Amino acid sequence: MDINTLSLTNNEKIIFNLRSLFNKRGYSQYKMSKFEEYDLYVRNKDFLISDSVITFTDTNGKLMALKPDVTLSIIKNSNDEPDSIQKVYYDENVYRISKGTNTFKEITQIGLECFGKIDNYNICEVINLACKSLRVISENSMLDVSHLGIITEILKAINVPVEFESEIFRCISEKNPHELVKLCSEFGLPDKDTELLKTIATTSGKASVVIPEIKALLGDVIDSKALDGLFEILSFVDDDVKDMIQVDFSVVSDTHYYNSIVFKGFIEGIPTSVLSGGQYDKLMNKMKRKSKAIGFAVYLDMLDILNVNNNEFDVDVVLVYNDSTKLSQIKEQTESLLNIGHSVFACTKVPADLKYKSLISISDSEV
After folding, report:
1. How far is CA 93 from CA 63, 190, 285, in A?
2. From the CA atom positions of the chain, what is the Rg in Å?
3. 222/224 Cα distance (integer angstroms)
4. Any residues with CB less than 8 A from the CB of 55 and at least 6 apart, and which?
């Protein structure tokens, strides 16, 4: 049956198509409980989008939390197999403050995790799947890719004090060259190092342009192996998604958890990212795991903005009948419309706020 003929919401269609996409690359579905011990989130609150968590006391006296995140639960409840590869995807509800409403919501989140003996192929595959996931949502999409290891190496090479690194990362993430220059002056950094950081913060574009430019600018400041590795990975992504990828070092995630490639996905018409991911070996290490890991999540609550803008109609056809209409007539007419792919709202009186493409009266259709 064609998924497009089914009466599903936009988000349901997206989930259906993403699950199919992940299955084809060997990812198996991971199911989990709706709640975890609250302590798991306390220990890793910086990893969460929001540190606000809904809690309750279990019958055994333990403080539990409605799950605000999926990745932490998967790591906690999976086996550590650093010499092999595990690929899982999830389609789960999480409970946290929504960016769009600033209130707690039950949010459907879908994503994937690849952990174990991660190599460049696995990283390339995940980036491919991130791009194709965005394409499932909209053709007008973009994936911004960065590498935290490169930025960290630069900061160490130019002797930025460790206690000021977080401020530098903040300025880079905000693309704020003016405050960055001010901070560098306070740190007493030479002008050439300040200009280097400004360029890192403000440069973005295709990998084939940006990476050679940054590499030439760095000279012998750092070893360029990480840059070369990033270039190789992005060179081998599928041809049909290469044009939607750009290198942007302002994409910054928490350096306590992420260590290498990080990325964010954007959709035209939505002011913030709808997809976020990266390599989080540091989180694995913090949770006493030897495996490496990379993954991403699609935040479906952010798509509500897109759905509101795109849903011009609530239903294709409003089918109007009266109190004397036979039940068999209503049923026959409804099924006839459904069979040719229309969605149908059958009623005796049309709701005032219902948006529809066409209206059919059973009495009119019999004339």
Report:
1. 20, 49, 26
2. 25
3. 6
4. 38, 63, 64, 65, 66
In this predicted structure, what is the pLDDT of residue 115? 94
- Is the four-CA dihedral 132, 137, 140, 142 of positive or negative sign? negative
Quick check: 366 pLDDT over 60? no
Q: Which two tokens stand for residue 93?
A: 């509800």
Query: Six-digit token pair at 72?
Result: 């932490």
Bridge partners (DSSP) of residue 276 are: 264, 297
Residue 317 near residue 337, CB atoms below 8 Å? yes
Percentage above 90 pLDDT, the chain: 42
pLDDT, tens digit, for every residue of 77-124? 889 999 999 999 999 888 877 665 667 778 888 999 999 999 999 999
State the number of CA atoms in the 13 A half-sphere of 119 facing the CB. 5
Residue-wise pLDDT tens digits, 225-252: 888 899 999 999 999 999 999 999 999 8
**How far is it, in rounded angstroms, from Cα 167 to Cα 183?**
8
Which residue in 304, 313, 303, 301 sits closest to 344, CA to CA?
Answer: 313
Structure confidence at residue 280 (pLDDT):
94
- The pTM of the full predicted model, rounded to 2 decimals, is 0.79
